[in-house]
Design a protein that fits this description.
alpha+beta, 4-stranded antiparallel sheet, 5-stranded antiparallel sheet, Chorismate_synth, 10 helices, Chorismate synthase, AroC fold, Chorismate_synth_AroC_sf, binds flavin mononucleotide, binds the ligand C=C(O[C@@H]1CC(C(=O)O)=C[C@@H](OP(=O)(O)O)[C@H]1O)C(=O)O, 17 strands, EC 4.2.3.5, FAD, aromatic amino acid biosynthesis, single chain
Length: 388
């Protein structure tokens, strides 16, 4: 696979800041901080979030790669300050002399990275694990995704995500229009488009909170306007379906990914799965879109549809059994502060994961150093498709 877009994030959940370096975006994408802050604010919303979101007000700062409202083509460095750091300065200090005794976390939480991380990195304090395994990292992933979305938008490609299910309460599929779904879901408490189902979702979250429990759910991300032929069938790691699945599965607490019909395709016969091909208005199209816009690892010109399943949050206010790593005696797992349900926030993270993967694939096929060059390459391809 050709490396067109690379990014690295860094930062502990309660450290001073999160940072990312993004390399490979072309010059001349119009960009301001608000383009990113808008998405950071969306990620902070949602019924079921815990106390941390009342402390943070995520805002990005460009440290390189942007001048006078446009990308330069050089690496873009992003920074987001953790406001909570003020409360953790000593506990998170890099200086050995600031060490605070007696605060080690020794009751690892089932379902989190705590115990395995302690064994793997030889830590005697789960804090050294949870600081980076925390989904605080997703704030920066959303910032990188917002950059990619701005790039995609300038090529006529839109990415939108919303919640379709929270712990078995499912949004009705009556509203089939993806833009309408997205518009309805924006700013709704559970980021879903079905107001009736949402009442049930809110009740389920409140009930779980009262019981000291937590909930997961399902998010759906749709890409509109993607050209035919992103990704490839020629090698396993160039298949776009596999790359999208990896990107969405890499989000903290995600345990399943489906494209189009997903697992349902395995239960149906071929005639009920494959989308018939037709030609009209000067272009090929599919009569249905059960494949979710991907065939043979490539975009086929229909909307891309990716769903991700998120498990319930591992930190429970009514904690599960664990073991004290020092005494090896049974103990209740640690709980400091936690979300009860973060599925609405995860829909925004999933949008980012998809947008980053799409931007990579787009740069592979239509690459260039400036936005104008890439736009011209894409226009040429679209003209070719229209001429068939
Ligand atoms: C947006 C978001 C917020 C999350 N908030 C919490 C939280 O408050 N408490 C918690 O224990 N886990 C939370 N998680 C889930 C953990 O980060 C995740 O379960 C953990 O990293 C272990 O990874 P795994 O579940 O992928 O195995 C959150 C995940 C996401 C995507
Ligand atoms: C900080 C965020 O999410 C955090 C993700 C998280 C976890 O374990 O993944 C645990 C919680 O951290 P804290 O103990 O500081 O409240 C969440 O708040 C965020 O989304 O920005």
């Amino acid at each position: 696979m050709i490396m067109t877009l690379r990014y690295l994030t860094a930062g502990e959940s309660h450290g001073p800041a999160l940072t990312a370096i993004v390399e490979g975006l072309p010059s001349n994408i119009e960009l301001c901080e608000e383009d990113i802050n808008r998405h950071l604010a969306r990620r902070q919303l949602g019924h079921g979030r815990g106390g941390r979101m009342a402390i943070e007000k995520d805002q990005v700062r460009f440290l390189s790669g942007v001048r006078w409202g446009k990308t330069l083509g050089s690496p873009v460095t992003l920074s987001i300050v953790n406001r909570d750091w003020e409360n953790w300065e000593k506990k998170m200090s890099p200086r050995a002399e600031d060490r605070v005794e007696g605060i080690a976390i020794v009751h690892p939480r089932p379902g989190h990275a705590d115990l395995t991380g302690m064994i793997k990195y030889r830590h005697d304090d789960a804090r050294n694990v949870l600081e980076r395994s925390s989904a605080r990292e997703t704030a920066m992933r959303v910032a990188v995704g917002a950059l990619c979305m701005k790039f995609l938008k300038s090529l006529g490609i839109e990415v939108c995500g919303y919640v379709t299910e929270i712990c078995g309460v499912t949004a009705s599929t009556e509203c089939a229009d993806y833009r309408e779904r997205f518009a309805r879901a924006e700013n709704s408490p559970c980021r879903t488009f079905d107001a009736d189902a949402e009442k049930g979702m809110i009740a389920a979250i409140d009930e779980a909170k009262a019981a000291g429990d937590s909930l997961g759910g399902v998010v759906e991300v749709v890409v509109l306007g993607a050209p035919v032929g992103l990704g490839s069938y020629v090698h396993w790691d160039r298949r776009l379906d596999g790359r999208l699945a990896a990107a969405v599965m890499s989000i903290q607490a995600f345990k399943g990914v489906e494209i189009g019909l997903g697992f349902e395709a395995a239960r149906r016969s071929g005639s009920q799965v494959h989308d018939e091909i037709a030609y009209g208005d000067g272009a090929f199209y599919r009569k249905s879109n059960r494949a979710g816009g991907l065939e043979g690892g490539m975009t086929n010109g229909e909307a891309i549809i990716v769903r991700g399943a998120m498990k319930p949050i591992p930190t429970l206010y009514t904690p599960l059994e664990t073991v004290d790593v020092r005494t090896k005696q049974p103990f209740k797992a640690t709980v400091e502060r936690s979300d009860v349900c973060a599925v609405p926030a995860a829909a925004v993270v999933a949008e980012a994961a998809v947008a980053i993967t799409l931007a990579e694939a787009l740069l592979e096929k239509f690459g260039g150093d400036s936005l104008e060059e890439i736009q011209a390459h894409l226009e040429g391809h679209r003209r070719h498709v229209q001429s068939l």
